[in-house]
């Protein structure tokens, strides 16, 4: 009995303290995919996706165990909670987006093998970025994530829109990375060659290098604001969303934003504590502008993916309220909680529009008119996610926004919260507009579906069966999470509270 207890105690220590273990599992999965593809010579590509899903699930299980240990052994493990939470979010994004993408790739008749490689590479880069405390590691992992996402955006290389989206993403991502690299060079020079964030804080004399520190903060803000799609660094978002394949947009719309949010929080909290008032004012102005711009321009959009692009711009403005109002006691609990709920709301919406785009080849919102006549299940699930994004009670989006805005109001962010409340009402208008279109309008959608399927022959009977299995699994998972997670806010908040890096 003592031997068993000793073994379990040792296993518990290994799992909790081996922060690199989930990343090792992903690397092993990546190598296994490459070797399996070389041995099978491109055959049985579905097996490669199963390897990806298994490695992702194992990594999620380990991270989930570490998060649960925070509740049981709070004093011992809270120092890893912040990193583990964001890494866990990235794995969730990767897992659900793969469920959406497998059959999309099959139906689109494009290469199968490289797709899981790029997905697992991007997820691995995001996980490393989420816990990086070294300037070199931050930059390398950021480029790893950005390049993998860029390759994914141009994956349908026969589509000129996908090529255009990939080129724009590459150029704009390079510009933002250059901004960050310029800032890192300043920090490296004025800290006597230090690359660790903690050492940089100790070495830099803030009273002596105030102008340099302000310039450095401006460059970091510009570089991370691009990754987050904050105004005015949001210009790439609508075009890249519209041109990229739908499952790819679902992936980097949440994965890259989660990793960039973690990076933004860590850099500004650790390096610029003495400039908190200054960067708080600037970030608040950017957040307010993002909320106003995103929710006003989205009303005029005709493309569903462009609509979701501007919606994500406004959503990141809401999330910034949590960062601005955060303190060590709350540990950014409101920001992390809402981001967790948003992952399921956003991916759930993409899980609905992916099969529609496959069947019709259309991204126009007007083509969703009368969708309830053709697919009532798809319509109902899409309605749930749109209402949750709008913050309609009793769905999860309402509780997430309530907790986020209430925490911001208590922190004194009266202007930001007021703008957020007003723009949230505006967002409800265009979400309800789409719902009304699907439920009340009539269209010749059936004829459109038949014509497109006869001309393109995208979905065979075998692939259609697979499409229902994987996409519907993602639909059910996201629908349950985006609808019911609000009922379990207390344990979620308990895990996210008192986190630090």
TrEMBL record:
Domain NADH:quinone oxidoreductase/Mrp antiporter transmembrane: 132-427
Domain of life of the organism encoding this protein: Eukaryota
All residue ranges annotated as the NAD(P)H-quinone oxidoreductase subunit 2 N-terminal domain in the record: 15-103
Main location: membrane
Membrane topology designation: Multi-pass membrane protein
Bilayer-crossing regions: 20-39, 51-73, 85-106, 127-149, 209-228, 281-301, 307-328, 340-358, 378-399, 411-432
Keywords: Chloroplast, Membrane, NAD, NADP, Plastid, Plastoquinone, Quinone, Thylakoid, Translocase, Transmembrane, Transmembrane helix, Transport
GO MF term list: NADH dehydrogenase (ubiquinone) activity; quinone binding
Pfam family membership, one: Proton_antipo_M
GO BP, sorted A to Z: ATP synthesis coupled electron transport
Cell compartment(s), UniProt: Membrane
Matches recorded under InterPro entries: NADH-Q_OxRdtase_suN/2 (IPR010096), ND/Mrp_TM (IPR001750), Ndh2_N (IPR045693)
Cellular compartments per GO CC: membrane
NCBIfam families: NDH_I_N
Protein name: NADH-plastoquinone oxidoreductase subunit 2
